[in-house]
Amino acid sequence: MDQGTESAQPPAVGGDLTIGDLARRSGVSPAVLRMWESRHGFPVPRRLASGHRRYAETDVDLVRQVLRRKDAGIRLEVAIAEAAATTPPESPSVFAELRRRHPALAPHRLRKSTLIALSWAIEDECCAVAERPVLFGAFQRPEFYAPSAPRWHELARVARSAVVFADHWDGGAEDADGPVRAALGPRAPMRREWAVVCDAFDATACLSAWELPGQSTVPDRERVFEAVWTVDPVAVRDAARVAASVAADAGVLAAQSLLYELAESPAPRATAPTGVTALFNRVVAYVDRLV
Questions:
Q1: CA atoms of 65 and 90, how far apart (whole Å)
Q2: H/E segment holding residue 172
Q3: Theoretical Cys-Cys bridge with 266: which of 122, 231, 233, 271, CB 3.0 to 4.6 Å?
């Protein structure tokens, strides 16, 4: 679609705003809004099948926040990052956010034993090559995290930040050298999810899955999940933002600063084929051992 014709699109319905609506209400021209989106990934529109942009009411305030910060002398890219960090992701679910923002990621139904193999491969590769990564792991319940605790203790030693999620944590002090533990609320979608997120400048990878319902009598390693995975830095950053937001809601003090850090778009870079091959080789080795 020719961007110049977007102003001629039919009016929005419901609570959605067209780019013209957003421009009129925020005082920023459509051309500038498109430039911000192209260069800074902000504001983030929902795309119709026709390619037209649609925005939420909250985007009006976010754009106005950017203008106020610019007027105060803050650089545009910093103003955008600060404004974006004030709004949590639309879904407190890593899996749902990845499926919403990256529909090209193909979901696959996998047994838990296969998820463990994928998780170990990502953890090992991240520990081996990533420089000071931000790490998140979702394990559903503490007893599922326990076998991985020594691995995550080592990961936390090389990470800039490491957070693990479960529905609750048993009594006892956290290991000062281990990952931060975040307890998920009773209605938190991530209570049913499995995830490993590694976000670093030189290495990115993410695995996210949700447990299909009706498996209370299925043996643990045979439980089936619907999973997606990616090494795309943009998708991994989106997953990390959700995890940081959930951690902040769970009371993790360091998560708020992470939200500001992760609000920025990842630096443009191409995924090295050698890195993907190394990760794939680790996956094959673990799958061969565990499945």
A1: 19
A2: none
A3: 233
CATH number at residue 24: 1.10.1660.10
Q: Which tokens sit at 199?
A: 């976000």
Last residue of a domain, one of 23, 56, 85: 85
Handedness of CA 124, 121, 274, 107 (dihedral sign): negative
Q: What is the pLDDT of residues 114-173, one digit of tens each?
A: 999 889 988 888 778 778 899 999 999 999 999 999 999 999 998 999 999 999 998 665
Percentage of the residues of the chain whose pLDDT score is greater than 90 = 45
Amino acid 270: pLDDT: 56
- Other Cβ atoms closer than 10 A to 69: 18
Largest CA distance in the chain: 62
The beta strand positions in the chain, using DSSP E, are 46-47, 53-54, 108-111, 134-138, 161-166, 180-183, 193-199, 204-211, 224-230
Same domain, 184 and 112: yes
Pairing assessment for the beta strands 193-199 and 134-138 based on DSSP bridges: antiparallel
Lowest mean pLDDT of 36-50, 120-134, 232-246, 276-290, name the range. 276-290
Are 123 and 264 found together in one domain?
Answer: yes
User: Can you give the pTM of this predicted structure?
Assistant: 0.70
Q: Considering only CA atoms, which of 4, 254, 244, 240 is closest in space to residue 126? A: 240
**Residue bearing the bigger pLDDT, 180 or 83:** 180
Give the count of beta carbons closer than 10 Å to the beta carbon of residue 49.
5
Tell me which of 48, 67, 85 is where a domain ends: 85
Q: How far is CA 69 from each of CA 21, 37, 56, 72, 77, rounded to the nearest angstrom?
A: 22, 18, 21, 5, 10
